[in-house]
Structure formats: structure tokens, C-alpha cells
Amino acid sequence: MSMKFTADESAFRAEARQWLGENSPGRLPSMDTENGARAHRQWERTLAASRWSVVAWPEDLGGRDASLTEWVIFEEEYYRSGAPTRISQNGISLLAPILFQHGTADQQARYLQPMTDGSEVWAQAWSEPEAGSDLASIRSRASRDDERGGWILSGQKTWSSRAPWADRGFGLFRTDPQAERHRGLTYFLFPLDAEGVTVRPIGQLDGDAGFGEIFFDDVFVSDDDVLGAPGDGWRVAMSTAGNERGLSLRSPGRFCAAVDRLVALWNERDADSAATSGVVDSWIAAQAYRLYTWGTVENLSGGGDIGAYGSVNKLFWSQLDIGLHETALELLGPDAELRGEGAPADGAWADDYLFSLAGPIYAGTNEIQRNIVAERILGLPREIDARKKP
Ligand SMILES: Cc1cc2nc3c(=O)[nH]c(=O)nc-3n(C[C@H](O)[C@H](O)[C@H](O)COP(=O)(O)OP(=O)(O)OC[C@H]3O[C@@H](n4cnc5c(N)ncnc54)[C@H](O)[C@@H]3O)c2cc1C
Asked: Is the minimum distance from the CB of 361 to ligand 1 under 6 angstroms?
């Protein structure tokens, strides 16, 4: 792997750094509150107006046709500037790649552009009360409505991030109850204000309504909003899961920026030796993740596939995130509890620590990722399926 950038890539980095230096809003209020969501949508508009919202997309969709290398460079600069996590993340990182891959021309025309400027924020509606890790056991169903040319959705989804503030959702429904578990599933796109949809906010650990339950009470969705072929939803969904665990959700720029802030905090505080070693470990882990990611970029740019290695990324970034925040709290001591005026970083370390605790759960729990690594990368025997008779 070479870490040398071309003149064009270096110019791209300089341009991004300058624009972000002049425009980054820094930390915004939580996007899981009404005011915060509004401020985040405004930031998405600002990014889109200068074509920094979706740099890897084609120019006619508001992007810059950036390469994967340039995209990672942009992410490094984005987080370096202190800019906030994107409210459009579900749309631009999870749904858009499969819209490009499986969507019709009409779906691409309708849905891609409004997600670039925050005018349509999407929620991922996969999990159900009895179907998280074992996603193929979902029970929400869709039945055919030939008369109207579409489907009727019913059932319940849960843990849908941003659903209380989002405009639209994407998710899997069972369309053929007779088919095998992974078959007979169909991928639907739907508006969250459709007749028959109820979104009930769920408070997170910090009290904000970061999630929602979504109830479907005979919701009509036309054939135009089936993504991929009916019955092919599992395959379509799996092309998103690799994205979520791999590069797109947690690019290393985010952790490098956090660890830089951690080093600054350590410099400000009279650190004891125990916290010092935590700072060093976090710094090394962030750099290791960055280098590993550049290796992945080289592999993907050469036509490789991230495949099961997305699970390695996921394990690494989720543990790194917790470790660095625990170290920050150790450095802050009782001050970590402070909020409001005079609180260190306005209480951001403690807020981010609470969120880091969710890292081993969302995007597929770490226990499941370890199974994937064991079976698909290390070639260990498959785990015993308790549902199968001996
Ligand atoms: C912050 C956050 C955001 C989220 N956002 C979304 C979202 O936007 N959309 C969405 O659809 N979902 C979302 N989720 C839900 C998330 O995907 C699920 O919580 C996750 O898949 C785990 O499913 P579960 O909660 O049903 O736990 P379960 O699957 O019931 O697991 C419970 C425990 O058992 C372990 N376990 C289960 N099966 C095995 C096995 N075979 N081997 C070993 N251990 C096992 C799990 O690892 C876990 O520790 C979010 C979750 C969080 C925390």
C-alpha cells in the first residue's frame, strides 16, 4: 500500500479543507431533537449548495465524481473540521448505493436528489421486536393489491434511527409466507406520513428521541416503490449491510478527529499515568484503523470486495470508540458529569460516550460480527443452529 497522494488528490484535500475551515458549523445541537434536526437539515443544504454533500456521486446529481480515495480524504477533512455526523446518513450511505445498483430510473430520479440537501431524510426500518440479529425472521408482511397496482403493508418495525424526524423509510416485508426464511422478502420504500403509518418515538439513554417504532396499519405502497424485484429483498438488503459495517458508516476520519481532541484534553489536564496509557492506546488504534482503511481503499480500487471484512471494521471501530471515550471520562474525572455553561466541551465527551456504548449493537451486534469473522474469514466451523433438529 502506498500512502502517496497524487497532485489532484492533494488539491482536492486542500480545497475541501479550505471550504470546511470557512463553513463548518462545528458541533450542532443533537439531531434527535426537533431544533437539532432543523439545524442539521440546514447544514445539509449548505453542503449541497457547494457540492460537498455527496462528493462521490455524479456531477449531474450534485456530486463531484470523486474517487474512493478522494471520498476518504473528504471524510478525513470533514471530521477534522469538527463538522457533525450527517442527518442524511441513512439516505446517502445506506439507501443510495442500492438505489444506484437496483433502483429504476424513476426511483433514482425521485429519491436521490432530495436526500443530498436534507430535504428528504430517510429512516432504516429493518429491525422488528422479534427480529434484530436474526433479521430473516421478520414478520411484517405485504400482501398484493392488484386493483391499485401495489402492496398493503402491515406489522411493526423498531429501533429505527431518526424515524421521529425523518420523511421516508426503507425496509423489508414478507411477501411470500410459504417461501424459505430468506426468500419471499421484498424491499419497500414508503413515506412516513402515509395513511396507516404511526411513528412512536423511543427515548435513548440520553433522553432524546433518537429512535422510533413504526407501525403499519394497512399502508398502501405502489409497485413503483418496490426496490429490486418482489421476493428479492434479502439480496437487495445485504448489499446495504456490507456498506453499513464497512467504510461508509464509520470512516476513520471521525476517530482520528476524536483522538486529536482526546490528546488536546490530555494536554489540558494533569493526566495521571493510567489515563496516559489510554490516550496512547486510543491514538495508536485510530492510526491503525486509518491505515487499515487505506489498505481497504487500495483493495476496493483494484476491483476487490470488502465482503466479510466489513465485520472486522465494525468490531474495530466500535471498540475503539468506547475505549477513547472511557479514557476521556477518566481524564475529566467528576467534571465529566457537568452540563451547560463551563462544562468541558459542553458535556460532549459524556454524550458521545453514551452513544459509543451503542456501537457494539447497531449495524449488527459484535457477537454476530465475531461469528462472521470466525466462519467466513477464519474458516472455523459454523455455529449450531438451535432451530434445526439434530
Ligand atoms: C443506536 C442504535 C441504532 C439503531 N438503528 C437502527 C435503524 O436505524 N434501523 C433498524 O432497523 N435497526 C436499528 N437498530 C437495531 C439494531 O440493528 C439491533 O438492535 C441489532 O441488530 C440487534 O438486534 P436485537 O436488538 O433484536 O438483539 P438480539 O438479536 O435479540 O440479540 C440480543 C443479544 O444476543 C446476541 N445474539 C443473538 N444471536 C446470536 C448468535 N447467533 N450468536 C451469538 N450471539 C447472539 C446478540 O449479539 C445480542 O448481544 C439500532 C440499534 C441501536 C442500538
From this structure: yes
Q: What is the radius of gyration, based on Cα positions, of the chain?
A: 21
Among candidates 142, 143, 226, which has minimal Cα distance to 187? 226
Cell (9 digits) for 343: 462544562
- Active-site residue flag, 337: no
Ligand 1 touching residue 159 (CB < 6 A): yes
pLDDT tens for 196-222 read 999 999 998 888 888 999 999 999 999
Residue ranges with strand state E in the chain:
122-125, 141-145, 150-161, 168-174, 185-191, 197-202, 211-222, 226-227
Q: Average of pLDDT values for 351-362? A: 94
Atom 44 in ligand 1: residue holding the nearest Cα: 367
What's the pTM? 0.94
Supply the DSSP symbol for 168: E
The pLDDT, as a whole number, for residue 1 is 62
Rounded CA-CA distance 369/308 in Å is 9
Terminal CA-to-CA distance of the chain, rounded, Å? 47
Q: How far apart are CA 7 and CA 5, in angstroms?
A: 7
Atom of ligand 1 at shortest distance to CA of 126? 11
Amino acid making up residue 113: Q
d(CA 161, CA 165): 9
State the catalytic residue, choosing from 76, 244, 298, 375. Answer: 244
CA of 370 to the centre of ligand 1 (A): 14
CA 285 to chain centre: 21
Centroid of ligand 1 to alpha carbon of 274 (angstroms): 33
Instruction: Note the pLDDT of residue 223.
Output: 97
The mean per-residue pLDDT over the stretch 142-153 comes to: 97
Q: Work out the number of other CB atoms within 10 angstroms of the CB of residue 73.
A: 22
- The answer to whether 128 and 155 have CB atoms below 8 angstroms apart is yes
pLDDT digits (tens, 9 = 90+) for 291-301: 998 888 888 88
> 14 CA distance to ligand 1 centroid (A)?
40
**168, 365, 384, best to mutate for ligand 1 pocket (most atoms within 8 Å of CB):** 365
Paired residues of 157 in beta bridges: 214
pLDDT for 249 beyond 60: no
